[in-house]
Structure formats: structure tokens, C-alpha cells
Specification:
Blueprint: E1 8-10, E2 17-19, E3 23-28, E4 34-37, E5 45-50, H1 53-61, H2 64-69, H3 75-91
Antiparallel strand pairs: 1-2, 3-4, 3-5
Amino acid sequence: MKPKKIPMRMCLGCSEMKPKKELLRVVKSPEGEISLDFVGKKNGRGAYICRSTECYEKARKSRRFEKTFSCKIEESVYEVMADELRSETENS
């Protein structure tokens, strides 16, 4: 029996390849709404970041989310994502 393949994804912040389960998915829905996907099941285009505020800030500063999703992201969307990430890291 072959060992099960672990899906790897690249973090937008630190550009490291990590197992998909360790990363947090950021998704752009078909309607164009951008949000964090903690369970990884939402419909839409996904990108991944580490579950740390440092990686989130790096990706935000270098506009990696905008490049990945090919759209302008409002400051209010970034604030909501930052708040969700902070509350998620505090709870774990």
C-alpha cells in the first residue's frame, strides 16, 4: 500500500510550501466577495496563508491577495479578515 499523499499549498505571506491542513484559506466567492474560510469548503477561488498575523500582514503589504484574485480589495475587507484571524488565533 502506498502512503497517502499530503496536499501541499504555498503561503502567500512567507512563500513556504506547507501541508494544506496547516494553512488558512482565503476565498473569493463567485460574487466577488473575499473572506476567510476556516473549514476550507466555501465555493470560489482559494489562496492560502499561515495561521499567523505576520504572514497575513506580509501578504497584505505586498498586495499578494490582489494579485492572486485579480481585483482591488477594499481596506474594510482587510480589516474584517484581520479581526477574524486575530480571534481565531486567540481561541486556539
